[in-house]
Design brief:
The protein has 99 residues and is mostly helical. It has one domain. Helix content is 77%, strand content 0%. The protein starts with 10 loop residues before the first helix and ends with a helix.
């Protein structure tokens, strides 16, 4: 956000932009972890112990958003790593439930 007049700073807008930036950072990290997992460059057990519930909860809330963005941007691969990470965490969750 560019400020031309310090007396006209919109604190609400700054907070909203900051929160969107934070959300984008989290989504990017999960997407990158998913890519590392897909390429077998990171241990799935470690990822599960660190992020399992967070990955599932966030993906399930945001999946419809990803689908709309994929469609509107004509980029079906957007968030592909995050989606892979989610599927791996769900697969491991189902295995634990069946034990």
């Amino acid at each position: 956000m560019q400020v031309t007049d310090p007396g006209k700073i919109d604190i609400g807008r700054m907070r909203a932009e900051h929160q969107i930036g934070d959300l984008n950072a989290v989504l990017l990290v999960f997407d990158e972890i998913g890519v590392l997992l897909q390429m077998r460059l990171i241990d799935v057990d470690l990822v599960e112990k660190l992020f399992h519930r967070h990955v599932i909860k966030i993906w399930e809330k945001l999946e419809p958003v990803f689908e709309k963005i994929r469609e509107s941007s004509n980029d079906p691969r957007l968030g592909e790593g995050f989606e892979h990470l989610y599927r791996e965490m769900k697969k491991r969750e189902r295995k634990l439930q069946n034990v």
